[in-house]
Amino acid sequence: MKSFSKSKIHQSVVVLLSLTLLSAGCSNSANSNNESASTAPSGETPAAEFSYPITGGPELTFMNEQLGGTPEHMPIDDEYEKRTGITIKHLGGTPMTDQKFSLLLASGELPDIFLNTWLQYPGGPDKAVEQGYILKLNDLIDQYAPNLKKSLQEHPEIDKMIKTDDGTYYAFPFIRSEAGRVYGGPIIRKDWLDELKLDIPETIDEWHTVLTAFKEKNNADAPATFRTMFLGERTGGFAGAFGVMGNFYINDGKVVYGYLEPGYKEYLKTMNQWYKEGLIDKDFASIDAATVDKKMTSKVSGATIGWQFYIEKYNSAAQETDPDANFVAAPYPGAAKGQLPEFGQLDNAYAGTSSAAISSTTKNVEAAMRWLDYAYSKEGSMLNTFGVGGTTYTLENDKPVYTDLVVKNPEGLGSDQVMMKYSHGTNFPMIQQDNNLPAKYPQTTKAIDIWKKTNHESHLLPPVTPTADEADEMSSIMNDINSLVKEAELKIILGTESVDNYDEYVQQMKDMGIERVLEIQQAAYERYMKR
Predict the structure, then answer these.
(1) In which order are the strands placed within the sheet that holds 393-396?
(2) What does the DSSP 8-state code read for residue 359?
(3) Burial status of residue 177 (CB atoms within 10 A of its CB: 0-12, 13-18, 19 or more)
(4) CA distance linking residue 268 with residue 273, whole number of Å
(5) Whole-angstrom Cα distance, residue 208 to residue 190?
(6) How many angstroms separate the Cα of 399 from the Cα of each of 17, 86, 98, 375, 403?
(7) Of the candidates 159, 58, 175, 64, which has an alpha carbon nearest to the alpha carbon of residue 111?
(8) In terms of Cα–Cα distance, which of 330, 340, 287, 293 is closest to 315?
(9) Distance between CA 342 and CA 459 in Å, rounded?
(10) Is 24 helix (H, G, I), strand (E, B) or coil?
(11) For bias kind Low complexity, which ranges apply (predicted)?
């Protein structure tokens, strides 16, 4: 692996190190594993001195939540092994919602470390502990995770999020940085707007005007293209302009299910009209991300909803054949000019995703705890944020400066692509720090501030944890309701069913028990607020 000297550093890109770095301090606890705690773990007895790498070269198995085979072994994996002394064998991935996850549990052949969204476990994380699949971590944190323990003591807002109502810690969390909570929104071809002498759209009516022009004057076969995941649940999408979004959220202290709201019917009515007019990709219900990318970079489509790095990717690909191509972020549309939409895309700092639980069958619990705890140390935070010192960055005046491997990659890779190999910038159990990663296009760096301009924060439902019984009851009801709302959305947008029939779907949801689910969610929300 090639290292870069100071003379080869791109001097103009200096990344300010504004981290709340975590120092290691060890403590121990003599409490039993079954004891509950309502506050952050706090042992009083000093533990034996510990330093990395761990001795004995233990090997652990690891499974993530992304469906697929064994991921490619990256330089970050080698660096983690060297620093911790622990070898990780990756077993591929199985999301919590996939049937294969249930089969895995039934097999009894569990990985040592599960990376998944434990808030989605049937019956909740308390149930996963109660059933003996994963370990309760309270006393183990006291014994073997001084870095996580210290961060929880210093950040009570994080501590509140990552435990259940009875104080059970069940996983090492992935905590997003404040800047990392917003990462997606509308993307549009600014060069097409300039040709048509149109401004970036800010309202639903302006979007209609723009997409119509893309179709009629730019001959775009699919003026707007996106996947079904971007309808109204994953992000507010265009639904925020109607004062709603899919799924659960908060209105004035009350839990609301967006699909029941009158505004959602109006949103679907508008999307159906756009579909009839050929403004929405006729294949949106079935296309994958690669097809969306192809359409966006080949003049088939001029707008989509996607993540920040899509802007970098689209500009880079399209400008190879069309130097004037210019993809930029557009704001989430409001109901009227100058009016903020109620919803956009916003995650809780802890959304439950990419959180690592330790299986009850793990033979070397200490090794699993130490490996995960390293990410919350000062050195681990630096590695996960800026990569490998001397390779992806060097320190100048105690500040990290990215090397040409990142800034001017000899293989033409984007900085985000390089850092995916040498760091864990996201979706890993850690407290995310802002890496101020250089972007090739200023349009990329401007996107987040544009997408942030919504009222979403006031509606965000925190990571509540219904009791095991409540979660079981809610799950049995929501399985059918989730299928129903997806069916209703597609039928109405595609025009196979009249939007007037949406009222009947709302009644069906009530008959299926959605009001009971709202009671459970409200109770869980109120308990959460009292933690």
Answers:
(1) 9-14, 399-403, 393-396
(2) B
(3) middle
(4) 9
(5) 16
(6) 6, 29, 43, 20, 13
(7) 64
(8) 293
(9) 8
(10) coil
(11) 30-42
Report residue 459 as tokens.
Answer: 């509606």
The residue ranges of DSSP E strands in 303-354, in sequence order, are 303-307, 327-329
| 238 touches 333 (CB < 8 A) | yes
Residue with tokens 């799924």: 247
* Residue 240 burial (C-beta neighbours within 10 Å; 0-12, 13-18, 19+): buried
Q: What is the CA radius of gyration of the chain?
A: 24
Q: Is the pTM of this model over 0.90?
A: no
305-345 per-position pLDDT tens digit: 999 989 989 999 999 999 999 999 999 999 899 899 999 99
CA distance 176 to 281: 33
| Least confident stretch, 3-17, 289-303, 352-366, 450-464 | 3-17
Query: Residue 27 is encoded by which pair of tokens?
Result: 């403590």
Tokens representing 311 are 């802007």
The label of the residue with tokens 């966006």 reads: 296
pLDDT at 225: 93
CA nearest neighbour of 318 among 305, 328, 330? 328
Selection from 238, 193, 230 nearest residue 211 by Cα? 193
Go through the chain and tell me how many residues it has: 531
Cα distances (Å, whole numbers) of residue 4 to 13, 220, 390, 417: 15, 45, 6, 18
SS3 state at 484: helix
CA distance linking residue 479 with residue 469, whole number of Å: 16
Q: Are 314 and 293 in contact (CB under 8 A)?
A: yes
pLDDT 10s digits, 261-310: 999 999 999 999 999 999 999 998 888 889 999 999 999 999 999 999 89
Report how far residue 390's alpha carbon sits from residue 519's, in angstroms, rounded to the nearest whole number: 55
